[in-house]
UniProtKB/TrEMBL annotation:
<dbReference type="Pfam" id="PF10323">
    <property type="entry name" value="7TM_GPCR_Srv"/>
</dbReference>
<protein>
    <recommendedName>
        <fullName>G-protein coupled receptors family 1 profile domain-containing protein</fullName>
    </recommendedName>
</protein>
<feature type="transmembrane region" description="Helical">
    <location>
        <begin position="12"/>
        <end position="28"/>
    </location>
</feature>
<dbReference type="InterPro" id="IPR019425">
    <property type="entry name" value="7TM_GPCR_serpentine_rcpt_Srt"/>
</dbReference>
<keyword id="KW-1133">Transmembrane helix</keyword>
<feature type="transmembrane region" description="Helical">
    <location>
        <begin position="203"/>
        <end position="223"/>
    </location>
</feature>
<feature type="transmembrane region" description="Helical">
    <location>
        <begin position="79"/>
        <end position="102"/>
    </location>
</feature>
<dbReference type="InterPro" id="IPR019426">
    <property type="entry name" value="7TM_GPCR_serpentine_rcpt_Srv"/>
</dbReference>
<keyword id="KW-0812">Transmembrane</keyword>
<feature type="transmembrane region" description="Helical">
    <location>
        <begin position="163"/>
        <end position="183"/>
    </location>
</feature>
<feature type="transmembrane region" description="Helical">
    <location>
        <begin position="34"/>
        <end position="59"/>
    </location>
</feature>
<keyword id="KW-0472">Membrane</keyword>
<feature type="transmembrane region" description="Helical">
    <location>
        <begin position="122"/>
        <end position="147"/>
    </location>
</feature>
Amino acid sequence: MNLIMFLQLTQGMIHFLTSPVLIFPNMLTEFSRIITILGPILNSFWIGELPVIALLSVIRIFLFTKIHSSNKIGNPVKIILFLIVLWVLFLILAGCYTRNMIMTPPTWSYDFSVPYAQLFDTLEIGLSFPCLLISYLSYLTICYLIYGTQSIQTSAKSRKNELAILLQFTFIIIYTSFVVIMWHPILIPMMSFIDMNKTRNQAIMNGLWIFDSYVNPIMMLIFNKSIRDDVFIMLKSGGKKNISPVTVTAFSHGPN
């Protein structure tokens, strides 16, 4: 399982484990220590997901254009991934120490009464949008290379695969950007009418965050025929029949 799927799966599991609190608020008191640990992990994995997405998008350009082989870009990628992992671990440790993430049903939020919570919130904003922009520009670049130049020879099947990936990626980027904006409506003046102090809006925000963990696999199922075929085969055979192995990237499956 690749890193991006691991980050999303962990977020989904934490959302699932803490969901009973929505029905039984007293659990916040009974399991306060556990929740104060799960909160920073959940938020840190969400933050760490975005630079990983951006990195994998840039790598795809290098591999697609064959400017560098996968072996040559391997070491720099490992270093960057190592730095991202260190950053995520730092966020987790800092969050657990300061307890800067609290669950106030129906959602999670920063506890701005603790030290440095505002700083971490600002860092999250400063990291989110550049990563999303880099990610999408990378895939637009690939589309330009496919359809706008004659220097790279691509088959019709390859162009179709890349277009499907772009559509998949476009939806994910728009959705993720919307979640970030909803989380920080003050960033966009025209969104200032959203009052995140209302319980209804908080519930919607939490639902959007939960669904974010499932957007990637759902989009892969919609836009990737080979994965759909394998899933249908598995369902028809009751999970007993072997299916062809697949290689899943951050947002796609298929030949480069």
